[in-house]
UniProtKB/TrEMBL annotation:
GO terms for molecular function: sulfotransferase activity. Belongs to the sulfotransferase 1 family. The keyword Transport does not apply. This is Sulfotransferase 1C4-like isoform X2. The gene is LOC106127185. Pfam families: Sulfotransfer_1.
Length: 340
C-alpha cells in the first residue's frame, strides 16, 4: 500500500553496544534504534513497523499497553473478563495469549530461531500450529481477528497508529521501575529466546543505558502519561492494582462501560488474587513451555509483590537508581504511588 509509510528513522545500534549486550545475552539478535526517542528493538520489528503504525482500527478494539513486566498479564485478564461479561469458562479454555494478539511478538522469531524451534517440535502438529501463529506478523493476525479485538503491545504510543485514541480504548499500566527491572531480569532468564546469563547488576546497567527491548523506560511512560486525560485512555499503576484491587477493578469496569455487582466484584478479585493467578495455566504461557521456549528454572508469573527490588539493589545501586529516577521525573508531574 503506497500510503503505508512509517514516519521514523530506524538505524542499527552501535557495534560497542552490540558487544555489551552479547556479553550477557546468548540469544543473538540484531538490534535497532527507532525514532527520536531511540527505542531499542529487535531488527525484525521493522518488517511490521509500518503495518502496525498504519493498521486499520475498529471502534470496539481494546489495547492493553505497557513497558514489559509492569502488570500487563494481570491487566489483560482483568480487561478481557470485564469486556467479555465475566466468561470464566471461556477464559479457562482459551489461553490468554490466544485471546489477545501481541502485536510485535514475531520480532523475536527470526528465520534461524523459527527453524530451530520447528526442528525441536518436529512431528508435533499442535505445537507447530501454535508456532505458526506466534511467528505471523502481529498486524496480519490482528486483521484476521473477529471483533471485539483484544490487542497487547509493549510499543510506546508514538509507534502505534496516530489515530489510536480517536475511537479505540487503551489501558496503559505502569510500575515502579526498580520492580520492573527485577522482573524483567527474571523474564530474560526465563525466555530461551533471550537466554540472559549475566547477573542482576549487569542487567540493571543495560536497563538504565536503554539497551533492553522497548527501552527507554521513562520515555515510554511519559508518552502515555501525557495522554492520560484523554477519555479513551486509562492510565493505571501496578501499585494501585496491588494496594486496592476492588477499587481499580471498578475503575476499569467504569472505563469499559460495564456494570459489575458487588458479588461479581468479589469473585473477580478472587480470580485475580496472586495465588489464584499464579496457578492459572491460562495466563502462564504454558503454550511456550510446550514449545520448549521457556526455561524450567524460572516461572512467568513470579511473586507479584511491590518493593521486591530491595532484595537486589545494594546501596550504590539504590543511590544510582534514585538519581536516575529524579533526573527523569524532573520535568514531569508523574509520580509513582509508592516506591516501597
Amino acid at each position: 500500500m503506497s500510503s503505508n509509510k512509517f514516519p521514523y528513522d530506524i538505524h542499527p545500534i552501535e557495534e560497542s553496544e552490540t558487544q555489551e549486550v552479547n556479553k550477557n545475552f546468548l540469544g543473538r539478535y540484531d538490534y535497532i534504534r527507532v525514532g527520536p526517542k531511540n527505542y531499542f528493538l529487535i531488527n525484525n520489528y521493522k518488517n511490521d513497523a509500518a503495518n502496525i503504525y498504519n493498521m486499520p482500527l475498529r471502534p470496539d478494539d481494546i489495547f492493553v499497553a505497557s513497558f514489559p513486566r509492569s502488570g500487563t498479564t494481570w491487566t489483560q485478564e482483568l480487561v478481557w473478563l470485564l469486556a467479555s461479561d465475566l466468561d470464566y469458562s471461556k477464559a479457562a479454555a482459551i489461553p490468554l495469549q490466544a485471546r489477545y494478539t501481541f502485536l510485535e511478538f514475531s520480532m523475536y522469531l527470526s528465520k534461524e530461531i523459527l527453524n530451530a524451534v520447528k526442528n525441536e517440535n518436529a512431528g508435533k502438529e499442535d505445537q507447530l500450529k501454535i508456532l505458526d501463529i506466534l511467528s505471523a506478523p502481529g498486524s496480519q493476525l490482528a486483521a484476521q481477528m473477529s471483533s471485539p479485538r483484544f490487542l497487547k503491545t509493549h510499543l510506546p504510543m508514538s509507534l502505534l497508529p496516530p489515530t489510536l485514541l480517536d475511537s479505540t480504548k487503551v489501558l496503559y499500566v505502569a510500575r515502579n521501575p526498580l520492580d520492573v527491572a527485577v522482573s524483567y531480569y527474571h523474564l530474560n532468564k526465563l525466555y530461551k529466546l533471550s537466554n540472559y546469563i549475566g547477573d542482576f547488576k549487569s542487567f540493571w546497567e543495560l536497563f538504565i543505558k536503554n539497551m533492553v527491548n522497548w527501552a527507554p523506560y521513562f520515555e515510554h511512560l511519559k508518552e502515555a502519561w501525557q495522554l492520560r486525560h484523554h477519555p479513551n485512555m486509562l492510565f493505571l499503576f501496578y501499585e494501585e492494582l496491588s494496594k486496592d484491587l476492588p477499587a481499580t477493578v471498578q475503575r476499569v469496569a467504569d472505563f469499559l462501560g460495564k456494570k459489575i455487582t458487588s458479588d461479581q466484584l468479589t469473585q473477580l478479585c478472587s480470580h485475580l488474587s496472586f495465588e489464584n493467578f499464579k496457578n492459572n495455566p491460562s495466563v502462564n504461557q504454558d503454550e511456550l513451555k510446550t514449545l520448549g521456549m521457556l526455561s524450567e528454572k524460572e516461572s512467568f508469573i513470579r511473586n507479584g509483590k511491590s518493593g521486591g527490588w530491595r532484595d537486589y539493589f545494594d546501596e550504590d545501586m539504590t543511590r544510582e537508581a534514585q538519581l536516575w529516577i529524579d533526573n527523569n521525573l524532573q520535568n514531569t508531574d508523574m509520580r509513582f504511588p509508592s516506591m516501597q
